[in-house]
Amino acid sequence: MILADQKKIDEYTAKGYWGTKTLYDLFLENVRNKPTALAAVDPLNREAICSGAPQRFTYGQLQGKVEKLSAFLLKNGIRKDDIIGIQLPNTVEMLLTYLAILRIGAIATPFPVQYRKHEYRTLLNFTEAKAVITMTHILKHDTAKDFVDVKQEVSSLHTIFAWGDNLPEDAVSLDDLDMSHEDVQLANEICASNKNTANDIFTICWTSGTEGTPKGVPRTQNEWIISAYASVDAGAFTEDEVLLNTFPMVNMAGIAGMFVPWLLKNCTLIMHHPFDLPTFLKQIATERATYTLAPPALLNTMLNNEDILKSTDFSSMRAIGSGSTPLSPWMVKGWNEKFGISIINYFGSNEGATFISDPRDIPDAEQRANYFPRLGVRGLEWTTRIAHYFESKIVDTETGKTITKTGMPGEMRIKGASVFPGYWRQEDLNHEIFDEDGFFCTGDLFEIIEKDGEAKFYRFVGRTKEIIIRGGVNISPGEVEYLLQSHPKVADVSIVGLPDKLMGEKACACVVLKNADETLTIEEIIQYFKAHDYAIYKIPEYIHFLEELPRNPVGKIMKFHLKQLVMDSAEERQEA
Q: Among the four residues 144, 175, 296, 554, which has the most C-beta atoms within 10 Å?
């Protein structure tokens, strides 16, 4: 399925930004180049996450698994452009699934492992997904059974495929696939006849918005490749790289930061997630990882913990990518001084924003922690190739004029080869999110910073949107408010994010009760969310009671004022 207009394809192809090789072409090249090299490794603690012992595959072994899985999916009716829901932890099955979908030419819509029935039925219906690929259980959650339970509510959904023991009825097992020669031959013929291109949509990922329902972000293979160049160039990846992936492979960090760079560089990918610190540290040492991703809070904690620093072998590690919240200059400098490890600062989004600070372009640790190169601006040269593959500008949110002066915050807008074509099936919204010049309005506030006489840096200031980012996961206040508004004790509610040293932000429910004599506890809210099958991470950690919510003259809740009220009245909050 191609969503980009031909004019855009022709322009970016002529400029050399977009190529003709698909991601599956890259995989086949890797198989031919290094068939016996180690390609993928399961988490050491796999048995605590899902069924089966940890697995290790060479590129040749991985190809055999992928071809068998794709043949099985084709035998069960999956075809090019079919949309497949995926809920898998970071195990080798996630790689097998992505590669099989790429071979068939289907479209993957990956769900975070925290999603539950509410998200399943909403998003599967919205995309008209034909099938789901999952595990029988992920951690303590009976994943396959829940998908089977909602199947009758999704008219497009034909098949639930699952790996693992205790397969529920009406699900199809992916263990021990027994494919005949005829099945494999037919699959080869179907795949050969497919006209898969690098401009076909590969994924529809999900991003939370202030409107409530998550928005689908379709991205092509070429768009993912462009975004992946940022990690490849900033980390100076080679074919000897051992990438340790700690982020879920459902959005920008996991796909553009790990999966696609793995394909581009023909290296080794070690899987990890949900995060477990002892397993993470052991994987660094035993697998000789050279690069990983970690949130700022974790890097701060480890650097402050002498027991961790003394007991872990970091000698193989060259660089660590981090982001989602501001980095500490002390932390960036400390990892380099103690271990020679470069901390790379990332700012990205599913829609295609990709800003990155690495030691080559910004060698000073303090500057790298706080600033990003002004990528996509003519006249400024940077080492990463993506600097020339898109354009960026900052716009005054009141006047709509482009800001060229330093120290004046404005909305970041981007346009180019990494930027998505628009949200899935939301034409009205898509007319609003792109300006008259075709730039995507990110909703993120940046300012231009001058150093050494040159206005060559950007600094992230905040968000015009109300998204709460908890441990790198986006939470939509609107979605949480929508559910809590239906609680029988709640008259009015608003959700705000509060600063948190470990998680970045935590959610607080600001509640006006219908009856002042009643009470509402965090435990009641938790049970209410569970009863409505909402993902657990969306449950507010705090509750703050008010007689009324602060509103402006036109009735809009003043979120900033409300947030300040809550922060000033910590003793009035209940904490989960």
A: 144
